[in-house]
Design a protein that fits this description.
2 strands; Ribosomal Protein L24e, Chain: T; binds zinc ion; 11% strand; two-stranded antiparallel ribbon; alpha+beta; single chain; elongated; 70 residues
Length: 70
């Protein structure tokens, strides 16, 4: 039987991802992940972002997105 040191044990770390559409950080436990048929993973903070992406809106043209202000 192999013994593992405490340092080698995998730690539970919550990763904070950024929204694929608006770029805001997504709080753990909220938002959802969308996997396309070609395998690309997209994470969204809200349904508003998801629907905007589905409709093909350019995030740079929307006023409520921080990317547009840059
Ligand atoms: Zn978003």
């Amino acid at each position: 039987m192999r013994k593992f040191k405490n340092n080698n044990r995998p730690r539970l770390v919550m990763r904070i991802y950024n929204c694929s559409y608006c770029g805001r950080p997504i709080a753990p436990g909220t938002g959802f992940m969308y996997v396309k048929s070609d395998g690309t993973i997209m994470r969204f903070c809200s349904r508003k972002c998801f629907i905007s992406m589905k409709l093909g809106r350019n995030p740079r043209r929307l006023a409520w997105i921080r990317k547009a202000q840059k």
